[in-house]
């Protein structure tokens, strides 16, 4: 499993970013994928998941602001983040697996830093 995230950066509160995660080494099309984030000193927090069926799920703190999507032709999963808040500042990683399995599978990328600040 190889996962490479990109698209992070510095954005002002209320701004938007789109993260991408390029996947390889497994059957992406049939795999659930998730995004998680980590703040220094804290554990990984689940953010969102998308299944092979296209079903999506979101954590309460991002629901209505973030949108997860996937392009199976490109083996890529995306996270569109709108109306960003300072508390969204974290390293965002994509992971193989769905809402209930990503942590146990233990397969996630190095992450991309998102900083929300004025």
Protein model, in words:
The chain has 118 residues and is mainly beta. 3% of the residues lie in helices and 47% in strands. A 6-stranded mixed β-sheet has the order 2-10-9-4-5-6. It has a 4-stranded antiparallel β-sheet with strand order 1-3-8-7, with no helix packed on it. A hairpin with a 5-residue loop joins strand 4 (33-38) and strand 5 (44-50). The longest helix is centred in the C-terminal third of the chain and has 4 residues, at 102-105. The radius of gyration is 13 Å and the shape is globular. 34% of the residues are buried. The mean pLDDT is 96.
Topology of this structure?
Elements: E1 2-6, E2 9-11, E3 17-24, E4 33-38, E5 44-50, E6 56-58, E7 66-71, E8 76-81, E9 90-96, H1 102-105, E10 112-116
Mean pLDDT comes to: 96
One letter per element, helices H and strands E, the order comes to EEEEEEEEEHE
Query: Which structural category do the helix and sheet elements fall into?
Result: mainly beta
How much helix, percentage-wise, in residues?
Answer: under 10%
| Shape assignment | globular
> Treating each run of at least 4 consecutive H or I residues as one helix, how many helices?
1
* C-alpha termini separation: 37 Å
Task: Extract low-pLDDT stretches.
Answer: none
Determine the strand fraction and express it as a percent band. Answer: over 45%
Strand order of the largest sheet: 2-10-9-4-5-6
Main sheet, how many strands, which sense, barrel? 6 strands, mixed
User: Could you tell me the number of beta strands?
Assistant: 10
Q: Measured on Cα atoms, how large is the radius of gyration?
A: 13 Å
